[in-house]
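In this supplementary section we document a worked example of the pipeline. Step one takes a protein sequence of length 418 as its only input; no multiple sequence alignment statistics are reported here. Step two produces a three-dimensional model, which step three serialises into structure tokens for compact storage. The input and output of this example are shown verbatim.
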Amino acid sequence: MENTPIADAIKELLESKPIFENRDVLRSTYVPDYLPHRDNEVDALLKILIVALRGDTPSNILIYGKTGTGKTAVTTHVGKEIEKAGEERGILCEVLYNNCGVIDTQYRLLAELARNFGKRIPMTGWPTDQVFAEFKSAIDSKKRVVVIILDEVDKLIKKGDDVLYNLSRINSVLENAKVSLIGISNDLKFTEFLDPRVRSSLGEEELIFPPYNADQLADVLRQRAEMAFRSGVIDDDVISLCAALAARENGDARKALDLLRISAELAEREKVEGVQEMHVRRAQSKIEFDRVAEVIKTLPTQSKLVLYSIMVLDKAPELIRRSGRRIMSTGEVYQIYKRMCDMIDIDVLTQRRITELISELDMLGIVNAIVVNRGRYGVTKEITLDTPQDNVYHVLSDDLRLQSLIDMRPDSIQMQLG
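The serialised model returned by step three reads:
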């Protein structure tokens, strides 16, 4: 029996020489035994939590820093070491990690915490006070220290800070157990929205993680590359380029790791022996497209329609050009937008609201909108499309509400609306 084309492709891919030894070490979820350039942060956190191994209650901690600065990695790493040291010394110390971007309500958080101690809590249906009581009785059943890590804690407080208030004061109603909270956030200002009592009790200690510079990121990548790749498939120029590109974006180690991993995946698919700088450039474009695509996908229909109007105008040859890009005004965008609304029978928003939606697209980095004063003609925005047209078209074409417009392509709409 002859092999199918797919079977042949599978065979060829499996028999080709892999670039990776272990690609998982290049993912942000992997925590190595040693974290380069985070000795000071590890030491500071360790000094706060070490009292747990004496049976005392560690201070509550707030940890701040931009994305990819090692906050989660350091906290979970130190937490594991504290747990391990507790086991060796016969001290019951448990560190619980929770991502509040996923578990984002107080009910779900308390239910998840209670489940860690064997309590069966339904996903919904109980009063929150009852769930809290179950959690409290579960942890207080033994003499122990419980450290609760709340990653992306700012996402939790968008639904209220009652759970933080209760958890930060739980020690006053416990007889055997002791609880400490660690809140992690990318937002330095999120505590402004907290009840002052919660703010003071949650932020007994504060740690700020600085961004990595290019040299530090290169060290992080070299450490992971030794574990991730076969010998000789990657050189230092590739690592330096990944580090430099990520350093330009706030020193984000996650971005650097993603760049290196995707670069290697592109090289592996091409069946070449090693990773080259061109693979890094291609990986950067892919990551940027994926980021923009995700943002555009989540836009409401009206914002997508405004974006498509800008894209249609970007095709117009009569528009002024600056630095190779076409410039359009708010009024021009609004005229196209209104006619499009009529074509697909959707409510027309006011020009003031459309101006606000354009500002939101600007903040997201999809378009560029600069306010200019045209003298007696008033104030307007000069708008340019900051995202490649093909990328915008590719994402918007998935929206069924816009399908009849998308199928016509921008140049066809321009002719019809002209």
